[in-house]
Amino acid sequence: MKKTALLAGTIALASLVGCEKAAPDTKVEIHHEPGTTQTVRDSAMGLAQEVVGVAEPLLRADLSTRLMGTVLSVSAKEGQNVSAGQVLLRIDGQELSARSSGLAAGLDAARAQLTLAETQAKRMRSLYADSATPKATLDMAESQLAAAKAGLAQLQAQGRELNSVAGYATLSAPFAGKVVARRCDPGALAAPGQPLLRVEDASRLRVSVTVSMNAAASLKAGIPLDGRIGTKAVKAVVEGVVPTATGNMATVNALVENKDGSLSSGSTATLLLPQGTGAVRLVPANALVHEGDLTGVWVRTAQGDDKRWIRVGRAYGKDLEVLSGLRAGETIVVPSSLVAER
Description:
The protein has 342 residues and is of the alpha+beta class. It contains four helices and 19 strands. The longest helix is centred in the N-terminal third of the chain and has 36 residues, at 94-129.
């Protein structure tokens, strides 16, 4: 038994030695992304508070009428560009025409009455001066003259009001812009004050945000601001800063040029309000990799390059702020120009 066990052990040891000699040499390959490396550092940069608001057109008008009447025609469609003064809608003004005719007849009668009262008053003044008529008769003539003047003035005021209302039988574009809402069609009944059309001029947008008074302390009209409307980076200019009705808050209004119409009114907008300076962690924008909604960088480690998902913030030229996911002192890979082009 002892000889058998010893022989088995010798065979096993020989097999083990043989295996070790037969095993080929293996090397662990370390993955490296092509490009140059850069150490992540914190830099002193201007800080900003990101505040969200809404971009609205600088000019907007809801067109309505002071008439009660039937809509005769609507010559504007939603999305149509219109010029200042262009007729967009007409309302039946027959009732106004009838009132105007009646008023014209009343004005003629009032003018005739005034002429008669002036003649009578002049005659009574002459007779009274010659002591040919009593004072009471003169007073009555003067009273009739005053009443005739007042009656004519009242009818003339009604005429001006009627002419003003008659102007609402035709609705025109108050400025050049775009029809963004059409709320009636021919045959509909228009009521006084009822919005019928909306016209906007979105060539300039106003972004309004509400912040604390401290955050708005350094802002004044004319200061440029960075921002975004939707997903597009924009340049804004402070229009003004006004305190809100309650609390220690302020409303900041900023204007954004939109001559080409590439920005949509009503979109979510973001303004970056300057808040002094501080340490900001930056990475080159061309070092980023994207997969769907995820943003990351290749981080070089002793075990090879590792894809790390990060959260980025404000752009500083060709660099982006890193909000989380990277530590100062770590090394990232910046692809070469050839790799970046591919």
